[in-house]
Amino acid sequence: MIPKMIDVKHLTKTFRQADHKRDLAGTLRQLVAPKYREIKAVEDVSFSLDRGEFVGYLGPNGAGKSTTIKMLTGLLVPSAGEVLVDGMIPWKQRTQYVARIGAVFGQRSSLWWDLPVIDSLELLQSLYKIPAQRFKSNLAEYRALLQLDEFLGSPVRSLSLGQRMRAELCAALLHDPKLLFLDEPTIGLDVVAKERIRRFVQHINRERETTIILTTHDLSDIERLCKRVIILDHGRILYDGLLQTLVERFEGEHLIRLTLVNSPQLIAFDGLRLVSSDGIQAVYAYDHHSLSGAEALRKLQEKYEVIDFELVRPSVEETIRRIYEEKLLLEPPPGS
Amino acid sequence: MRRTVILYFKLIGIQIRSQLEYRVSFLMDVVSTFILNFSYFVALALILERFGTVAGWTLGDLAFLAGLAEMGFGLMDLVFSGFDPDGFSQFVRLGKFDQMLLRPVNISLQVFGSRFLVRRLGRFVEGCVIFGIGAGLAHIQWTLGKVLYLPVVLLSIVAGMGALFVVGGTLIFWTVQPVVVVNIVTYGGNELMSYPITIYPRWIQGFFTYVIPLVFLNYLPGLYFLNKPGLLDFPPIFSFAAPFAAALMLFLAFQFWRFGLKHYQSTGT
Amino acid sequence: MRYIWQLVKNSFRMQATYRTALLAGLLTNLFFGFLRAAVMLALYQGQTSVNGMSIGTAVSYVAVSQGLIAFLTIFGYFDVMRSVYSGDVAADLIRPASLFTTWMGRDIGRSIVNLIVRGVLLMAIFSFFFDVVLPTSLLQWVWIGFSLLLAWGISFCWRFLVNLASFWTPDATGVGRMAFALSQLMCGFILPLRLLPDWFTHLANFTPFPSMMNSPVEIYLGILNGSQLFSAIFAQVLWLGLLYVVCRVVLAAGIKKLVIQGG
């Protein structure tokens, strides 16, 4: 059996939150007789990742994503459970472990603000003890892939957000990590810059077989990059499986947008429901599990004279949002 | 070991370079730090025109003592800038400390290398000037022993006061915000060391002898350099206790630091 | 006017959320006060009175001046220059009051809270450890109050003026630190002016700084009486007026520069 890249078993993190006011009296009382509230940030989370997987780690704010990531990167020690990454326990032997992983946090910079990009990269070479030869070849490759040359000599503070993210990615990958954590890597970027970053991480994942865990609020990132997603809420895993399966199961109604000769009369018939209408424009919704697009159109044509039509599928983004908001995963899936 | 030293100099090299980029503001900072601290010495010199001595200590004696304390504190302020609770608090809040934990290098080394405020040289230079004035006015009878012991005392002050910065920085792991009371023992301790400790109320003397042993770092060695009899219960040999007191303080401080780090890794912020 | 009142109320309310910081500040001021009082006692060493100041008065001088640190912001003030550098000043410039008034409004609430917590409370605790002079006549308290008010005005004008340097140079922080070092020494905060050499005190009297701290403290201690008191108050009024006019002129020039050159 090939060993897993990541193996997480029953991971739990409980925070004890001091239950007091932030004034001096409260602080003193807390010193004498501490009172705590227990908060379970992560509860009984288990999953495993194979080498070279690219998985999306999703969940609404406060779901426990960043707590999990902190435990996987060794920043935080769990209250219970096991984590084995590439055969190592992250929070033990910190220095050896972090030499094997890379991380990019879109909201923070790991580069030196006042330093030219190239100097930051060279400093990372010393910090990670990267052999000169490997550093040279890696840098050459990333320079080409990420088009770093235009700003390699400029101080980090003068870079645009997109340029900075490219530099951050290069910085995180110079030491050939086996596992890469990406946290909101495309936040605040325009469409072109986002696409460049996505192409690059996809390339790294495929060519170098780097295992990647992506946390993001931008579901188009997920849709574009991850086959598999893990969804978390209230510290528990709600779903772990293929994105495709999830979408098929929970996708909302499909829509059919019509232009008719006469304005629509029927509110609902044969599994079709009028969502909105404006003169001769109408939108009908139907459940795509019981009705195909062609059938829906045929049924509509039986009632109306259709001039034009367009089938609309909900985006993955809408689907996932629906899952969060309507808590669809909290109920057992139909037929299980 | 060699790698550690090289890395340290690389890290502070970056700090120095980026500070020198803003040259005018850097020079202004050095000069203003100098003036700010020197004005206190000027005030002392002025008032002694009327009073002559502080508890029998002349301007020269006092300048020697205060200069030594200032040199040590200035140097410490520079070397231990990374642990300075105010800066370190920001570091933790901005997540930069987490970034350091993600690098495969000893964490204390990274904190030492994370901040190196060169403008604090102003305080060191000011200490040197006051010390020079003191050494001149106090007519020190220099012996080989004194010449050799002087740098030891200086480094002991750096290490001992640095230990207090490390403790103040470690508290950030619990409080996130800097604990201002720490300033009482750091900046207050430095102020206290600028005068013979015997002028202070008993409880202050006791606190800075047995709880935070600053008296061994400056006052007792000072007696040796100035050939003064001590008023405390310590025999003259205690003038040479400075490096031991400092080593003990620094050792305990880093034990506490390690404990704090463990706490941080089990709670985050 | 209502706008200013709003600012004062806001700054007052904000202080309440800084309770821990206030207490920490109090403790720090208190401890340094102990150290300074010890130095004062060691200086006097049995002498009862020096240049019209008795040992008890000198120790009280330390207590009062420590208690006024936060009220008069003796250690320096960089808020205005920070807002100039961050660009926040633009939001203040379109408000219905001048920049001077706006910042004064913001500072008043903070100062009042600090006068009570780090002033009155400090004096009260200090008096457990040392004999602190307490004025008894009502008239003297009136003069003290008046003089403190003037001192606060002078302090604010001075601080504001120093901050205005940020309209001209990107390095106003350094300028400010030097300026505040000067005012700390000359206002009698570090040591009472009366105990320094006469030539220095004369020199200081050519500046507004003694009116910022030394005068109100000496009025509190009852050192200044009769005509001396009047001339001290008169000097305060004069300096306040002068500094205010200078602030206005420099501010107008600064805004002009900011608007024309876009900072």
Q: Which of globular, elongated, flat, extended, rod-shaped describes the shape of chain B? A: globular
User: Helix segment count of chain B?
Assistant: 12
Question: How many structural domains does the protein architecture of chain C include?
Answer: 1
Radius of gyration of chain C: 19 Å
Amino- and carboxy-terminal Cα gap of chain C: 29 Å
How helix-rich are the residues of chain C, as a percent range? over 70%
Q: How many domains make up the coordinates of chain B?
A: 1
> What share of residues are in beta strands of chain C?
under 5%
For the largest sheet of chain C, list the strands in their spatial order.
Answer: 1-2
Largest sheet of chain C: 2 strands, antiparallel
- Quaternary status: heterotrimer
Secondary structure: helix percent of chain B: over 70%
H-E string of chain B: HHHHHHHHHHHH
Low-confidence stretches of chain B: none
> In terms of structural class, how would the helical and strand content of chain C be classed?
mainly alpha
The portion of residues forming beta strands of chain B comes to: under 5%
Say how many strands of chain C there are. 2
Task: Please provide a written account of the structure.
The complex is a heterotrimer of chains A (336), B (269) and C (263). With 336 residues, chain A is an alpha/beta fold. Chain A folds into two domains: 6-248, P-loop containing nucleotide triphosphate hydrolases (Rossmann fold); 253-313. Chain A has eleven helices and 14 strands. In chain A, β12 (272-278) and β13 form a beta hairpin. The radius of gyration of chain A is 25 Å and the shape is globular. Chain A starts with 5 loop residues before the first strand and ends in an 11-residue tail after the last helix. The relative contact order of chain A is 0.12. With 269 residues, chain B is mostly helical. Chain B has one domain. Helices cover 73% and strands 0% of the residues of chain B. Chain B contains twelve helices and no strands. Chain B has helices spanning 2-20, 23-51, 59-79, 85-93, 96-101, 107-114, 121-137, 144-175, 182-193, 202-211, 219-226, 242-267. In chain B, α2 (23-51) packs parallel to α7 (121-137), α4 packs parallel to α8 and α8 packs parallel to α12. By secondary structure, chain C is an all-alpha fold. Chain C is globular and about 60 Å long. Chain C contains twelve helices and two strands; from the N terminus they run ααββαααααααααα. Chain C has helices spanning 2-17, 19-44, 55-72, 79-86, 89-93, 99-129, 138-163, 172-186, 198-204, 209-212, 214-221, 226-261, and strands at 49-50, 53-54. The interface between B and C is large, with 37 and 39 residues.
